[in-house]
Amino acid sequence: MSLLSHYNESRPAISFELFPPKTEEGMEVLCDNVRQLCEFKPSYFTCTYGAGGSTRGTTLSVLQRVREITNLPVASHLTCVGSTVAELESYLAEAVAQGVDYIVALRGDPPKGTDKFVAVEGGLNYANELVEVIQGKFSNLGIAVAGYPEVHQEAPDAKTDLENLKRKVDAGADIVVTQLFYDNIDYFRFRDRCVAAGINVPIVPGILPVTNFKQAQRIASMCKAGIPYDLEKAMNATDDPQSQFEIGVEHARQQTINLIENGVPGIHYYVLNKSDAAKALLDGIQMVG
């Protein structure tokens, strides 16, 4: 099933993002959570990897296990960081051989300790170049790229950021998955700007439930995502972990309901290898666009 076809269904497509665990015990916990998440009939799972490709092998192992458990399509993240074109093509060939269906094509963050991305000799500078490589030799792979409702932290302005996104889509991306956001207005504004710019692929919102406020603040600061005043106030009013969990889950639940009511093609959940928050927020929601 093609990546784009998931978003042509009457029901919004749900997908979940995982990351490679560091231990075998962590892998077993991940697999158990994947089984629980299948209750919500996801269309596919994705898996990230460590900085500089440090866990690419584990990423493929995770995706292989997920396919065995779910019999669903799987997507591997892939960045340009620290890799030549030949190395990227080698990974793509291995991914295809292991049954990976889709690629989330990213430039990637600058290596730790630096604040500017610099391609290695023989490497790539931008995600649109990675999309072109995939299209050139691995055209059967579906391709997702990232979009930034609140503007990429390195972009000088929103217009430039949108132009960069259009280059990725024009190079052959099937869908755009957004960075996390906590105010749906930011997503709707971004979606409208994409349409006005001629970006005519599904713009899939990415949601990360706030279950621990300090962690959410750290993650949001890394990607320059704003936390709404009411959510911040409610979270700051309690130190109780369970109360923070419930507040965050309810916020993500209301985000989800509002997004579905406003016709999103699907929702991508950053679940951090856990199922409890996703299960709580999705419980009882009718996925009807």
From TrEMBL:
GO terms under cellular component: cytosol
Annotated InterPro entries: FAD-linked_oxidoreductase-like, Mehydrof_redctse-like, MTHF_reductase_bac
Domain of life: Bacteria
Catalytic activity: (6S)-5-methyl-5,6,7,8-tetrahydrofolate + NAD(+) = (6R)-5,10-methylene-5,6,7,8-tetrahydrofolate + NADH + H(+)
Enzyme Commission designation: 1.5.1.54
GO BP term, pick one: tetrahydrofolate interconversion
Known cofactor(s): FAD
Broad enzyme group: oxidoreductase
Keywords: Amino-acid biosynthesis, FAD, Flavoprotein, Methionine biosynthesis, NAD, Oxidoreductase
Record bears the keyword Amino-acid biosynthesis: yes
Gene3D superfamilies found in the cross-reference section: 3.20.20.220
SUPFAM superfamilies: FAD-linked oxidoreductase (SSF51730)
One family name in Pfam for this protein: MTHFR
Known pathway: Amino-acid biosynthesis; L-methionine biosynthesis via de novo pathway; One-carbon metabolism; tetrahydrofolate interconversion
GO molecular function, one term: methylenetetrahydrofolate reductase (NADH) activity
Keyword flag Flavoprotein: yes
Similarity comment: family membership: Belongs to the methylenetetrahydrofolate reductase family.
PANTHER family in UniProt: METHYLENETETRAHYDROFOLATE REDUCTASE (PTHR45754), METHYLENETETRAHYDROFOLATE REDUCTASE (NADPH) (PTHR45754:SF3)
Protein name: Methylenetetrahydrofolate reductase
